[in-house]
Please model this.
Amino acid sequence: MQGPQRRSLQLRVIYALCLCGATWTHLQVALTHGLWWDYGGAAPLTRVYWTSLLFIDPLTALLLLVAPVAGLVLCVAVIATDVAHNSWFALHHPIRIDLYLSQIVFLLFVLSTVRSAWRGAIRARPALSAVD
Model:
């Protein structure tokens, strides 16, 4: 494995581990309160979004390793929407600042490294050949 591909894999593993940590957080909530918990009276779309992350985060982690391009796109989308949503939510409700700050740090890390991860993932893709 060459330099860009190795760096991409290292970054994608870090992203995946962070997403596994987020999955653990969502799993704890689901095990404690159930899948249909209202998060203390949160809006219906907030409940759906947060509960969906229990499934989207591990899917993203898996895709980062088996389908890197799709995984990178989904990773950026997940963390960007999560921070945007939680920033909006924090304007109206108290939140756990430690979890919120960890999401912001992860977003900044992803945004500052995703180009490198993308380049290596693109180079690692097998070339398509014409079938006769």
